Amino acid sequence: MSTYETLRHFADGLALAGMIVLFLILCLWPFRPGAKSLNASAAQSIFEGGEDGE
């Protein structure tokens, strides 16, 4: 096996591991302890400014 193939397999494995870690971080980000108030305000934001006669 050549050096190129060895480095390519290593880089592919690292890229996959990095993408999995990034995916998990992004999926778990809204559930962190400090995000409760931000999530609540985002959930209620669609009801703000609705004085259009409906």
Structure at a glance:
This protein is mainly alpha-helical and 54 residues long.
Strand content: under 5%
Shape: rod-shaped
Broad structural category: mainly alpha
Q: List the secondary-structure elements in sequence, H or E.
A: HH
Number of strands: 0
Helix amount: 55-70%
Largest sheet, described in full?
none
Write up what this structure looks like.
By secondary structure, the protein is mostly helical. 65% of the residues lie in helices and 0% in strands. It has helices spanning 3-28, 36-44. The protein is rod-shaped, with a radius of gyration of 22 Å. The chain starts with a helix and ends in a 10-residue tail after the last helix. The mean pLDDT is 88.
List keywords for this structure.
mainly alpha, 54 residues, 65% helix
Topology:
Layout: H1 3-28, H2 36-44
